[in-house]
């Protein structure tokens, strides 16, 4: 399935090894005027080729399919230097899966039991530069009590309007590490987006205004 994208639309490619599910989801996404499904495939290797051919804004990735694992897919998409955002769409609720993917730079994580509207919300959120954790994931991930110093530093940078790349440069850590700290902060504060984590941290005076 492939479409012609208008300038205002978000271009999406998807990979899932369940063809019926993939076709159904493609039709649902294509019906949203904000989105354009540029192509679908059934393996990680094919997803990389789709990305090279179509230069999408967002890649939706099933984490259990043939080809390179999700961390490898994220790494290869990052290497294309196209600014492609990555969204895991999975049946896995295990905290270890989520932590591993977020630590490897995945921009969003949504479980397949989520409502379709939440998937669209996730796409719009990560395309806007924020990270997205689905509501179900927040419920199942255990939360430690306090934010670490690094988590507060990353949120403080975001509060000043810095991007993850700028924060990484300022703190002399990798951008992937910044995103991992963002994900942990979101989980601890019980929110889905970095902007919400910043607002919560400011409200609770965990970081300075």
UniProtKB/TrEMBL annotation:
Residue intervals of the Response regulatory domain: 11-127
GO function terms (MF aspect): DNA binding
Cross-referenced InterPro entries: CheY-like_superfamily (IPR011006), NreC/VraR/RcsB-like_REC (IPR058245), Sig_transdc_resp-reg_C-effctor (IPR016032), Sig_transdc_resp-reg_receiver (IPR001789), Tscrpt_reg_LuxR_C (IPR000792), WalR-like (IPR039420), WH-like_DNA-bd_sf (IPR036388)
GO BP annotations listed: phosphorelay signal transduction system; regulation of DNA-templated transcription
UniProt keywords, alphabetically: DNA-binding, Phosphoprotein, Transcription, Transcription regulation
Residues with 4-aspartylphosphate modification: 62
Name of the protein this chain belongs to: Two component transcriptional regulator, LuxR family
